[in-house]
Amino acid sequence: MKTSLCDLLSIKYPIISGGMIWCSGWELASAVSNEGGLGLIGAGSMSPDILREHIKKTKIATQSSNEKNVFGVNLPLMNKDIENNIQVVIEEKVPVVFTSAGNPSIYTPKLKDAGIKVVHVISNEKFAIKAQEACVDAIVAEGFEAGGHNGKEETTTLVLVKQIVDKVDIPVIAAGGIASGEQIAATFCLGAKGVQIGTLFAISKESSAHINFKKAVLASKEGYTKLFFRKLSPTRLLNVVAKDISQTFFSQVEEAENRGATKEELLNLIGVGRSKKGIFEGDLQNGELEIGQAASMLNEIQSVKQIFVELKAGFDRAIQKIS
């Protein structure tokens, strides 16, 4: 499974955990890094002080007497604390930063001057080319199947990865709907040099998401996720179907969009703290539950170690079939 991305990021396996809000704290990031992948701290919901705390804990958890495993931080560029958070990752000498939701040319030079590898998340060809021009080290091509915020083009992962690999000269990391070793092999056949996995790690034992959220993901079936908020920023949400839960945030959004709600109405409906309420606090009725299409593939809460065992075994099976 070794690719050029492993050498670029100094990791054993080209498997990266998504920097997911309310899921990707220091425990998940360090667990993924300690298995040989690249664990990301999701800084989207973190103040500079909280981010620094998670970085310090990850440093301790990923360092043994024999080796020091690499980890990274995911920084949404539209975050109100972005300037301070970038200063924190520089001061703490974080080796890798993944950026998203913004223009990579603004902060990439500063990060690279500090010796940090920079990877940018894109959803279309135009942004991929701009990211390469900004001199990022690699690109994440995230397809329509992904949870949370999505590209307006709604391009699926297999289409997007092939399209981007043919347009750029830097490593491409596939993301969106990937939850098995066989899927990793499929993206490698298209030219991807690594994968970023969200949903599978979001419900791992080490994820900081609430157990209610994890169980709701496991109970989901095909078609239980849906892309909303196309008038704002397309976001994939999970529908909770349970006898003891009536009207949910999902159903409210669906009703509003079906009647053609305006941007202002949708913003008022979202309010503040919806994703924290749903993912971190476990309020399945009133919270915003962001998860990818791969949710329907999952049937148990596993440790990161178990996940890596299964991903590697599935990858090997796929390669043997191809051979």
Q: What's the helix-strand series?
A: HEHEHEHEHEHEEHEHEHHEEHHHH
CATH topology of the largest domain: TIM Barrel
Briefly note the structural class of the backbone. Answer: alpha/beta
Number of strands: 11
Mean pLDDT: 94
CATH architecture of the largest domain: Alpha-Beta Barrel
| CATH homologous superfamily identity of the largest domain | Aldolase class I
Helix content, binned percent: 40-55%
Low-confidence stretches: none
Quick synopsis:
The chain has 323 residues and is an alpha/beta fold. It contains 14 helices and 11 strands.
Structural notes for this entry:
The chain has 323 residues and is of the alpha/beta class. The protein folds into 2 domains: 228 residues, Aldolase class I (TIM Barrel, Alpha-Beta Barrel); 86 residues, no CATH class. The chain is 41% helix and 15% strand. The strands form 2 sheets. It has an 8-stranded parallel sheet with strand order 1-9-8-6-5-4-3-2. Helix 6 links the parallel strand 5 and strand 6. Helix 3 packs parallel to helix 4 and helix 8 crosses helix 14. It is globular and about 50 Å long. The protein starts with a helix and ends with a helix.
